[in-house]
Amino acid sequence: MQHSLMIELFDTNDIVLISFAESLMKSAGILYFVTDQNTSVAEGSLGAIRRRFLVDRESADEARQIMIDAGLEHELAQG
């Protein structure tokens, strides 16, 4: 069984949160990827499709701690 190289840190429709998280991860040198951006735009920004914020599996604990330190623990995916 092969494990994914990236895991979901959170999902949201809040582009400000995504931008802030991107800034935090860039500053820490953590690889990240935001999924479903084009799909979200194509569906007309109705909010039906949430964007998922993925981080490198090896840096997931550090990424979670960065989000907690920034006061965003309530945004984190469970698990």
Characterization of this structure:
With 79 residues, this protein is an alpha+beta fold. 38% of the residues lie in helices and 22% in strands. It has one domain: UreE, C-terminal domain (Alpha-Beta Plaits, 2-Layer Sandwich), CATH 3.30.70. It has a three-stranded antiparallel beta sheet. The two termini are 19 Å apart.
How would you summarize the topology of this molecule?
Layout: E1 6-12, H1 15-28, E2 32-35, H2 37-42, E3 51-56, H3 60-69
Antiparallel strand pairs: 1-3, 2-3
Give the helix/strand class.
Answer: alpha+beta
* Highest CATH level, the class: Alpha Beta
H/E element sequence: EHEHEH
CATH homologous superfamily descriptor: UreE, C-terminal domain
Terminal CA distance: 19 Å
- General form: globular
Please identify the oligomeric state.
single chain
InterPro entries: DUF2007, N-reg_PII-like_a/b
Protein name: Signal transducing protein
Pfam families: DUF2007
Domain DUF2007: 6-70
